[in-house]
Amino acid sequence: MRISANHWWLPFVLVCGLSGLMVSSSWGDDAAPAAETKGETKVRDAAELVPHTTLLFAEIAAPKAAIGQLLDHPLWTQIRQLNGYRKGTMTPQYFALNVGVVYVESQLGMSWREALEGLTEGGVTAAYDAKTKGSVVIIQAKSEVHLTKVRDVFLRLAREDARNKKQPDPFQEVQHRNVTFYKTKGGAFATIGATLLLVNQEPIAREVADRLLDGTTSEFAKTPQFRDSRTANHVRPTLWVYGDIKQVRDSGVAPKVYSGKAENPGAELIFGGVLEVLQHADFFTLDFDLQSESVAIGLSLPFEQKWISESREYYFGPQGQGVAPELPPVENRLLALSTHRDFSQLWLRAGDLFDERTNDKLAEADSGLSTLFSGKDFGEEILGSFQPGLSLVVARQSFAADGVQPSIRLPAFALVMEMKTPEASHRELRRLFQSLIGFANFAGAQEGNPQLELNQETRAGSEIISSTFIPEVGDEQNRQAAIHFNFSPSVAFAGKRFVLSSTRTLAAELSATQSETIPSNEEWRINTIGHLNIPILQQVLEDNRSHLIAKNILEEGHSQKEAEAQISDLMDILEMFNSADMKFHTEPKSLRVKATLNFAKR
Q1: What CA–CA distance (Å, rounded) separates 135 from 207?
Q2: Which of 256, 259, 283, 254 has its CA nearest to residue 57?
Q3: Under 8 Å CB-to-CB from 97, ≥6 apart: which residues?
Q4: pLDDT digits (tens, 9 = 90+) for 61-120
Q5: Is there a contact between 317 and 342 (Cβ–Cβ < 8 Å)?
Q6: How far, in Å, CA of 516 to CA of 194, rounded?
Q7: Across 130-246, where does the E strand assignment appear?
Q8: How far is CA 148 from CA 87, 154, 181, 193, 600, in A?
Q9: Distance of alpha carbon 1 from alpha carbon 187, whole angstroms
Q10: In angstroms, how far is the first alpha carbon of the chain from the final one?
């Protein structure tokens, strides 16, 4: 039997097209077994069938529940109301698809959903083998009778279509131990009892088929790290993926990823700690969970504190004790992100973290920054004057009815940090900000740009130094002002807190809020946390609706009506969601990142 490695997914796609197939699978011993009748093969745990050198293994828990979550999700009611969706249902292609579905259902003698649920009741698993570069999809139906019926209808319709088009038979039948493999241009598939195999390579086809026929078990299923991580979740996710990092690392593929070094400071700031862990972790797991109220994706890696080098303490904190600040509460908050990072240590450890070229650029920048800060060392004296940790806040801003209003309304944004010695840092940072505004005015005057006016105020124990663009005479109530009127660069000091903001209003609000450190315990420590308020995002876009419509017309070539319909669809889509959250934390034996998208309640 010889199988081509090209387009290996073709038979899988054809089966999907026939039955509306959704990939699903069993989950260890908790999965409901498929119904058995005389002469059928008992449903096996797919992990026992795949090669021991499997690199990626994916399965979905509770197939029928997963199908129901997807097809009966409340979101569909809103999706069907979208202009784009309604327009798509009025096309000849959509009509032809519906006719095709009805015809296939008549041949199957059941609805496509019944066929789908029956075809996947025992589960579907996908695996990729590193040794042979072979892929296999193992679909276990509720019975051999059901699978055989779907297979035979599929074969007959595909062959009839080929004859009608005067094309050769799309399948070549080849035998392996009395099992018929239907070979296509891109791979092959076979049914053994109630199990359907889809493969792209002959070696993996033989190996999985032999285990299924002989009842033998792969060593992969017995691997402790796979077995333990598979049973670690008490709540079963919709989709679970296991990946073998050690095989990739040992093979020498993508050595830069496992070198422990980022290519630039931005990547280091975001991923530095993960790169450190990837040098030691042997595997990862990924889980995807769909519920009526949310959809979430999580990544987990093994984690040991001893893996963290001294140069990466800036990322996790000494002995891994670093914890992110709480998200500052402000009105109309669009986005908030807090993270534990010791920026002083990051700057001072650059020689261990970056290559020679990047370090040369950082050295050049350090020289210029030292001049800007009156000869003070930027890494040790300036960044070192702040406590580890930083918060970013983005908020929708409003404009006075009797004042200047920019034609494009941008949200305000600010950084919040904590000073180690407020008395010493306060004076230096205030002087620096005033100097920067003066320099900006001097440089702007040379180009004919508007000038900034400095203001200073004290309120409730906080000091705010702001700068405001001065409108031209007669433009004090301009409703279509330039974009720079979104900004009034400001700093605020409140106790140990230092705020650098794009607007005076946000600086004042942040200086008055109380921001604490997120509590922690021995089990977890939150390194980074974020929250996106989607209704506020919708309001920000609504503030700029006319601009978005005009941009759509210019860039997409749409008519006014078409552009308005697309922007309306965008707003309706956003209305389906409430918020998005991200949390990155460490546990005694694992590092976990989880992102959640929360649906709006209806």
Answers
A1: 12
A2: 283
A3: none
A4: 778 888 988 999 989 988 998 988 888 899 999 999 999 999 999 999 999 999 999 999
A5: yes
A6: 58
A7: 134-140, 172-176, 179-183, 188-192, 195-199, 239-244
A8: 38, 10, 14, 9, 43
A9: 11
A10: 55
